[in-house]
Write a structure and sequence with these properties.
Length: 413
């Protein structure tokens, strides 16, 4: 079995991509999705978040939601809005966000290699979220939400993708948020063979975003294998939909923390506790950390620059040396008493796409007592954690730009 392989993608018909493309299913609430899809009958949100077409009180995990998703899926295929390619292909996918641009490969990735950790993870998953994706895949008999993967340095792959994406794209969409999505179909047999061989030579791929989708694909494959007496390993369910970018092109933004109170401490007591492990410097302007071990603290309308004492940064532990880990280990836990980031309701997380102004707004409103701006986790750190078989703390990475749903889907028949 190959690490990746081409597949006959289900895609918007020519000229229909702008009507179909939608944000990922997990970045919008049902109310937000309902508003985004209003007046757009072919928006993929009718498939990825089919609860928007049911009464608002409907349980989002009820059987009716998955049945409605399948109904909408079939309707879009019957209407010719979505069409399947005649033969297996790869697809070049380019994301453009302002001056940032990254070009990757849409491919079917091996579930077997996911199961053996050649496709490497860095997060825990939640069973309820896995269950949701399993039901969605089974209902559609398709994977419609791509897993975002990264590949290590591979100049040959970069060169093939650059050449494949040099002409007019087969689909070109600029979303409401200004992010441009472009797709080129790679049909050339020689390029397909070279890409497959180049990925087979790679030691590993890395999940950037989509741990629940990949885990669900693994569960679906295991179940179908068990009930298929003629299983060969070549079936489509043995692979999952992915978009794979070169790691050096991917953009991780900061994932910041806000806390609701100071653990019954006065401002002076709080800063004294912080000062035991960090140097504290008042700043006349917003603090956007420029290096590992540096943090911005916004408290009572004022910014401070925090720098952890160098001797507290372990050199040989890929998880403990992360900025998110250092903040938890040396400030959130010992000073604020926040030790469980998954369950403690005193802490919240703000993606860097919202900017430092959002941190100020939440503190100034009185909703939050203090905000911490972090330096972004690097792809190299993510890969080091995955290579070590470890997991990162919750909310360690915020990838931008994000993929669109609906531009290429992977059928399992």
């Amino acid at each position: 079995m190959h690490l990746i392989r081409p597949f006959a993608g289900l895609r918007p018909a020519p000229g229909r991509a702008a009507e179909v493309a939608a944000p990922p299913y997990d970045v919008l609430s049902a109310d937000e999705a309902r508003m985004r899809a209003a007046g757009k009958p072919w928006s993929f949100l009718h498939i990825s978040k089919a609860e928007i077409d049911l009464p608002p009180e409907t349980d989002h995990y009820s059987p009716q939601v998955y049945a409605k998703s399948r109904e909408n899926f079939d309707r879009m295929i019957a209407a010719g809005v979505l069409r399947r390619d005649d033969a297996p292909c790869y697809y070049a996918y380019r994301l453009t966000m302002g001056e940032h641009r990254q070009t990757g490969l849409v491919a079917a990735a091996s579930v077997a290699d996911y199961d053996t950790n050649r496709i490497r993870k860095h997060e825990f998953t939640r069973p309820d979220k896995e269950d949701d994706r399993v039901r969605q895949i089974d209902a559609l008999n398709a994977q419609t939400g791509p897993v975002l993967l990264a590949y290590p340095a591979a100049p040959e792959v970069d060169a093939i993708l650059a050449r494949a994406s040099a002409g007019t794209p087969d689909a070109d969409v600029t979303a409401d948020d200004g992010i441009a999505h472009a797709i080129w179909v790679i049909r050339d047999a020689a390029d397909i063979e070279r890409l497959t061989a180049a990925f087979d030579a790679m030691p590993a791929l890395y999940i950037a975003d989509g741990h629940h989708r990949s885990a669900a694909a693994s569960r679906v494959a295991a179940h179908r294998h068990a009930f298929n007496p003629k299983h060969t390993g070549d079936e489509d369910y043995n692979y999952f939909l992915s978009v794979i970018f070169p790691h050096h092109q991917m953009r991780i933004m900061d994932y910041n923390r806000v806390v609701k109170d100071l653990n019954r401490l006065t401002e002076e007591e709080f800063l004294a506790g912080v000062g035991e492990r960090f140097t504290i410097e008042a700043s006349p302007s917003r603090v956007k950390p420029a290096q590992v071990g540096e943090y911005g603290l916004y408290l009572h309308g004022k910014w401070h620059r925090l720098t952890i004492r160098p001797e507290l940064i372990p050199a040989d532990d890929p998880v403990a040396r992360l900025d998110v880990s250092l903040l938890s280990e040396h400030l959130l836990g010992p000073v604020l008493g926040i030790r469980d980031l998954r369950r403690d309701k005193r802490i919240d997380f703000v993606g860097g796409i919202r900017g430092l102004a959002e941190l100020e707004r939440r503190v100034d409103s009185g909703e939050i007592a203090a905000a911490f701006a972090l330096h972004p986790t690097s792809m190299e750190d993510l890969m080091a954690v995955a290579d070590a078989g470890e997991v990162m703390p919750p909310k360690s990475t915020w990838f931008e730009p994000k993929l669109a749903d609906g531009l290429v889907s992977h059928m399992l028949d």
